[in-house]
Amino acid sequence: MNWSLFWDLTVSGVTLGSVYALVALGYSMVYGILKLLNFAHGDVYMIGAFVGWFGLHALGGPVSPNAAAWVVIVLMFLVAMVACGGLGVVIERFAYRPLRNAPRIAPLISALGVSFFLQNSALLVFGASFRDYDTFHLIGAKTYNYGDIFLSVPQILTIVSAIGLMIGLTLLVARTKIGKAMRATSFDREAASMMGIDVDRVIASTFFIGSALAGAAGVMFGLVFGQIYHFMGFLAGLKGFTAAVIGGIGSIPGAMLGGLLVGLAESYATGYLPQGSTFQNLYVFALLIAIIIIRPSGILGKADVKKV
Amino acid sequence: MADDLTPRPPPDQPRIGVDEWVASVEGKRERYRGPIGWLRRGWDEAPPGVRLLVFVVPAAIFPLVTTEGNLFRYGLITLLYALLGLGLNVTVGFAGLLDLGYIAFFGFGAYTYGYVASSQTGRHWPPLLAILLAIAVAAAVGLIVGYPSRRLVGDYLAIVTLFFGQAFVVFVNNANRIDFPLIGHADLTGGANGLANIDPIKILGWTVNTTKEYYWFTLGAFLLVMVLLYLVSESRTGRAWKALREDPLAAEVMSMPVNRLKLMAFVFGAAIAGFAGAIYGSVQTGAFPGDYDVGLLITIYAIVILGGAGSLAGVIIGALIVNGVPELLRDANEAEWVFYTTVVLLVLIKIRPWLRLAVVVVGTLAFGFVLHAIADAAFPRWTAGNPGEGALAHWVSHWMLLPTHSTQIANWAYGLLIAAILVLTLLKGWWRTIVMIPTIWLAAFVWENLLVEQTAGATRFLLLGALLVVLMNARPQGLFGTARVEIA
Amino acid sequence: MRRRATAIAALLALAALAVVAAASAKADRAAAPAAASSADARLISCGNTRTMGVLGPITGPAASLGKLQIDWIKYYISKYNKTHKKGKLRAQYGDTVLGGPGGTAEAVKAAQSMGSNVLGVVGPAGSNEVRATTATLKNAGFAFVSGSATNTELTTDGTRTGFFYRTVPPDSAQGTSVANFINKKLKFKRVYIIDDQEAYSTGLADTVQSKLRSAGVTVTRDGVSQQQSDFSSLIAKIPRDTQLVYLPWQLPPKGKAFGQQLRSAGKGSIVLMGSDGLFDGEFASLGNVYASSFPTSATNAVVKAFKKSHGGDPEYFGAPSFVAAQVVGGAIERACKDGKATRGEVRAQVRKTNLKKTVLGLNVSYNAQGDIKGGQFGIWKANAAGTFNPVS
């Protein structure tokens, strides 16, 4: 058993899975409350990556930053998260709120329109070339190892911040008042509004948090993998959606678990199966189908009881 | 006419206690008001044959009055997309099944046709037979995919079909390197290079070669499918599908064979997609893997939902909008006219009373000229840029600021414009009128300095996206769909 | 009854009117639609400004590649117009959205949008796009010269001879030089080939793989999606005793990311080699990598001037498009000598192209199929400083 290969694959899987988990969280939270699949979520992630890049360059750029590297990175995260949160709230207010009582399929097309708009606005304003985060100059590529397990600094950064954000989110949902309001609204929107909860504000907060997480994921992606461009949200959105469904759509721990599973599945499929990299999407989907057949509402999802 | 009995609550509040019948009565009362209402009444009361003619007559005249290039871009591709939309309409619109792998059937049709009728594979079956085979294969695949998924509901069906769609693309992309155990190396689909040199369609000695001929052929095919679908939708099966879509549980309780109906909808939709695929393959003279991916699927979904899921006429309008608008904006000169005409029309139609309209028009013109005069006098660099080509652009350059190095400014102006438009939707009354003036000016500024450079590229898709959002907000049920109210 | 009838009649009339109005508004500036054979012989007046059609991926997933090509084409046109007072060139752009949602239908739509005063076409970029647009462009009588469509069959299957030309060598030529270099010069025995699932890439990878395998080299093959940026699991799978990884990719940023990830995984001793798509400063910045390319020289005056006006980036991927524009522009100029030209004349002039010392480092003249005569491919190596030097 080649342990070195196994640990390498596991580390890559967990790193990529952390990014997917953050994107999946946004999908799951919005679906839980609104039963809406937000197609534009992947593009919010893309905007987050670009905002982070511009933030990096406003602070002096990767080669000679104006402050210590860690300060720069924290600032990048903050700026991207706030910007994307705001963007999410704006999108909800203008593209989804008027359609709240429309048939379920209408906001899907509105989301699609927003997605086209964001992608091509990014193309128009930022241009077609790839932009590089150049993490090598910013924080170096030092690798730490514990036995056979090798971790580079960007990877550690990604995993740690993702875990931190997820813990923060769980605490927010479980312990704070707004978290309680979110849980109530996702359970039954009308009863919640009858209990005096401002449903509009709750939904706006949900979008803010979900989009902020997507923005953080975008910055993380840029730090670990380097290259960002206007079309990157498409595939990430698809994978995030898959992760959300695997973990049980509507469930927050489910989204985290789903993201990790998708990342690990991709990694192991690439590493162990013949022509694994070519067909890796298929293997992930096959995993998804297998899980749905065994547990139709996802791993941690609640079975939807339909009242007649 | 009678006034509204109860004031309608704003759209984002739940409508408790309203049911379908009440919603439809309100809808009907509103429907026949005004000149548009007159047209609507004509449409509603016309027999289906006449409604079909309303579409057929202009479609038949179209090739005779336009150039070949326009015929292809606006006519042929729109028809093909509309044909695909008809098939998806059966699965999504009639039966309510969210099929995200629909495009794979399209691909199956094209590849099957190409496999038996192209110079690359060396087989040259009679094209009509090849088309029938394509339909049969697509329907069979629909059966194979539909059978295990017939019990899945909603989102889970979506996932499974999405998987199937992705599997198809990856398979077809790599199928030129497959080593079968008994047969040995086989090149099924030409891999990433696709199946090229597909034969043109030949019927009874007539070879379909030019764009016009393809257009006639596709129009004929489209009409055939349209008539067929109309007959089906009026039949027992069609009614059963509609019942299934509205409430699957009630349908089952009414002893409808729900699973069998779902399977039939799947197979029907797949067969139509296969037919469209065969035609598309011969139009493109090749079947390439990238053509049958999620991107096109999303486009067809947009077409069906924009037109109204379940409505046959809506598919045509949806295809015209989703395909026609980006094409219209390809050429910078045409796009210039489209932009200014749209802005002027919107202002003229939507702003009432007349006083406000006058204020906006005069205000915007004055605003522009005043700024231009100030800039000419004090900051000449702001008016020294390049106007576009054409007479319209020339006139506009006297009214609008054209800075020399406009990229940075235009980018920020673009962001400002989006913010301004969003704020505008929140304001009411005179505030709205006043803010409208600089917003319109800003829109023209951004157009002249940023968007017009990229009409062949980013601009047209950007505007399509914005159009989709606006249309869905204005009419969530789609242009020809029926208003539905979710019962609380 | 009568009201219903009039309403219906009004609807019909309205619809017909709308269509006729729309159609006549969109009608092209020149009058009659061009039929297949008469397109060849239709005289287009040359006038003071001649139009060249440009088909490329302006938007979509391949927009970054299209930008490089269009930058070089725009550069050619601006240079040409500076030296020609009469008879300037302008471009009509058609967006083919390579890899986008509409698939190759977008490319055909773009080809169909070429106006009636267009004399010749540069592009399209993708090999599949060339296949899909052949019928349209041939019907319209265009010569179309591509700066990046490398699939071998495009010139050997005979369907577009006399219409299609290119300023890049076919995959068979590039694949052969690469395989020979790996086998004979470097004498490697264990090679890993990773394609990016696009037509260009799999074609090249197939050629190199079969040639190496028949020479007895152990070749493992895998693929990644062009959208992918995380190569860490794939890199983990590559055995440490692999001697060379061949990447026939189109996007230099991805090649660079792969190289960096390879090195940070501790497998930096494996030699990295790219195809002409990776012949770019970004990939070279990795240092000690190989790439195949035309003998484009960084000291060429045109290249230097281009670099200066584009922020120091030579954008080599677009250089063949510059030459393609040269071919078409030169053909238009020669055909327009008598003030009028037909598309057939432009095609004949393209056939007679004879350019000396182009930016590609070789002379361009065409054989009967449409390929450059004697278009040799060289292998280059990037030194530690990140500049490519020829090694074969």
CATH architecture of the largest domain in chain B: Orthogonal Bundle
- Say what the CATH topology of chain A is: ABC transporter involved in vitamin B12 uptake, BtuC
Count of runs of 4 or more consecutive helical residues of chain A: 12
Query: Which fold does the CATH topology of the largest domain in chain B refer to?
Result: ABC transporter involved in vitamin B12 uptake, BtuC
Radius of gyration of chain B using CA atoms only: 26 Å
Radius of gyration of chain A: 19 Å
> Which stretches of chain B are poorly predicted, pLDDT < 50 over at least 5 residues?
none
How much helix is in the residues of chain A? over 70%
* Strand-residue proportion of chain A: under 5%
- Name the overall outline of chain B: globular
Overall strand count of chain A: 4
Strand order of the largest sheet of chain A: 1-4
What strand order characterises the main sheet of chain B?
1-2
Structural class of chain A: mainly alpha
Can I get a quick summary?
The complex is a heterotrimer of chains A (308), B (488) and C (392). Chain A is mostly helical and 308 residues long.
Descriptive account of the structure:
The complex is a heterotrimer of chains A (308), B (488) and C (392). Chain A has one domain (3-294): ABC transporter involved in vitamin B12 uptake, BtuC (Orthogonal Bundle), CATH 1.10.3470. Chain A contains twelve helices and four strands; from the N terminus they run ααααβαββααααβααα. Chain A has helices spanning 3-34, 41-58, 69-96, 106-126, 135-138, 153-175, 177-187, 189-194, 199-225, 233-247, 252-272, 280-294; strands spanning 131-132, 143-146, 149-152, 227-228. The model of chain A has no long low-confidence stretch (mean pLDDT 86). Chain B is built from 19 helices and six strands. Chain B has a two-stranded antiparallel ribbon with strand order 1-2. In chain B, strands 3-6 form a two-stranded antiparallel sheet. Chain B has a two-stranded antiparallel ribbon with strand order 4-5. Chain B is globular and about 85 Å long. The two termini of chain B are 30 Å apart. The model of chain B has no long low-confidence stretch (mean pLDDT 82). In chain C, 57% of the residues are buried. Chain C contains 14 helices and 14 strands. In chain C, 43% of the residues lie in helices and 17% in strands. Chain C starts with a helix and ends with a strand. Chain C folds into two domains: 38-169 and 299-351, Rossmann fold (3-Layer(aba) Sandwich); 172-293 and 378-390, Response regulator (Rossmann fold, 3-Layer(aba) Sandwich), CATH 3.40.50. Chain C is an alpha/beta fold. Classes of the chains: A mainly alpha (308), B mainly alpha (488), C alpha/beta (392).
